[in-house]
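Blackboard transcription, Thursday session:
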Amino acid sequence: MHSRLRSLSSCLILAFLVLGAKPAVAQDWFRTAIGMDANKPRLAIADFAARSDSAKPHASLFTKVVRDDLQFSGILELASPSFYPPQAPSVPAEMKPAVWIDPPTNANFLGLGNLSESTAEVAIEAWLYDVRSPSSQAVVGKVYRGAPTDAQVRKFAHQFADEIISKLSGGLPGVAATQIAFVSSRGGAKEIWVMDYDGSNQRPLTSLKSISLTPRWSPDASRIAFTCFAPNLGLTSAQICMFSMDTGKLVSFPRFRGTNITPAWSPDGTQIVFSSSMQGNPELYVTDVNGGRPKRLTMVNGASMSPSWNPKTGQTIAFVSDRGGTPQLYLMNSDGTSTAKLDLPDKGYVIDPAWAPNGQLLAFSWRRPNDNYDIYIMDAATQQIVELTRDQGRNERPSWAPDGRHLVFESTRGGSRQIWAMLADGSQPRQLTTAGHNESPNWSTR
Amino acid sequence: MRLVSRSHYRTGLIAALVAAAFTFGCAKKPVAQTPAAPAPAPAAARPTVTLQASSTSINKGESSTLSWNSTDATELSIAPEVGAVTAQGSTKVSPADSTAYTITATGPGGSATATATVSVNAPPPPPPPPTAPTDDELFLREVRDAYFDFDKADIRPDARAALSTTADFLKKYPRFKVTIEGHCDERGSTEYNLGLGDRRASAVKQFLVSLGISADRLSTVSYGKEKPFCMESNESCWQQNRRGHFVKAN
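(Written on the board underneath:)
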């Protein structure tokens, strides 16, 4: 921990020596940039009451999932359940605000409710109250009804958590209902898989039985573009493949000569930018969403790949190129003009650029000399950087959650390559996959 | 193998019966008083003969000894090949193929035969004449991959030599088309390595074209670090994985 702090601060100092800024400002700009203020509201989520014995498992599941979601939200502090008063209110009338406000719970807000269940339906009543103004209306009051399955109860819990997060973060929606696409070789071949944002409900999308890589969600989350080797489709080299979440099948996409890899979407979802050697050298090309009218954006020696299109402005594309000898990050206008290298305060390999939803922060992976790959974030305007991982194996391919407060990435810290998520300040890393090898996560855009 | 012919045996038996009938049966014949005929001379004994082979099964080029014995024979002959022989004896034979030797013994009392067969084992079939190597064997034997430095797509001196050998092969056998696979070691990123592997495959292709190989015969594919030849994390293994690898495409 010490070494990490030391490295972090020395890295920051180095960055600010270069840029002439002061480290003290760094923490503030960064906290503000990722929307995580120091003063967080403190919540308690009472155990949801089961109205019958048969409802107990789902009441426990609902409570657990809501707490996990809130714990990982980054915008609030969840009081430890071991501090809670013994009596959990099942409806607002049973609520005794004082016992939740008092130490050790010290809550500002209280979530509570109940769950009843028949063989046909589960019904959940859920509220959030500001316990310091108990006379006021509920901050959140919801009734959820649906099939009495684990999957549906999880879904309702994610919805309730997102309601709370949205209310307490000034309208920015939570990400508990989002999904993460990734590559898994657990079945032998590398296929595209998808899972809930918390790692549950992992399932394969493709069965090309070959090598599928670099999934990227379309802005409306209806499609996933990815890199495919599909000899059983007659494709001899890497190509761009397109999967439709609506039909559960591949959508046709034209084939190009050479190596075609690392697709990324324009923010309006009408264009794809990807690396192709269709004319010899691996350059970036942009096509319409159906692969038509390819237009070359780069034209230099070396290979260019891994583009990320600024999702906020649509004006800038970040990408990787080894035109200078080693892979480094470059920025260019989305029409291919005004290319500039992103300068970092040290040498090494710089790869995997990923724009944050706010279009200001750029996450990337950097292998500094004599070191391993780690995840960093840069403010594109000021070029200030923060290191998020340290001395924990290889950490690569960050992808932002739509709330801009979470990142998912791949890491070998546990021995094998797995998908991890963390808050954008590097805290609360949690492992999402364990089966086989898993890589190249991409967080859904909604 | 010894055989006495059944037909000769029968002939002897009939002769004896006729002789007996002649001796006793005619006594009642109403014949005029004639003086008794003088007793005929006793019938000559029928010959007997045996033939044996010391080895009844030999390999080609080896020999076997035929031995025979006879009685009451004045002439003996072994066929094939051997010809006239004495009343008893032995001789070496070295037949090229399996042969049934028959000895025929002839004497005043008739003749008899005996047979001995010497089988000659066929020699092992000669090794088939050398066949032309298959295309896969040719390819494996004569085509050389090109190896690269870390993070580079430049053709090294050792790769120039390897690719010259490969070019010679492709000139000698114009029927071959090849796919050049670009491969990388595990240290770079998945995505960057796909680009680097593409550059390596292209560099190999360009070099072969410069040596006079038609580009139509050369296709390229990059596998980045997705299909390593060697799975360990050390330099010798990484070097194995940094290569332009040839695969026969037809």
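Lecturer's comment: The interface with chain B takes residues 190, 211, 213-214, 227, 229, 236-238, 258-259, 261-262, 275, 277, 280-282, 302-306, 320, 322, 325-327, 349, 351-352, 365, 373, 396-397, 439-440 of chain A (CB under 8 Å).
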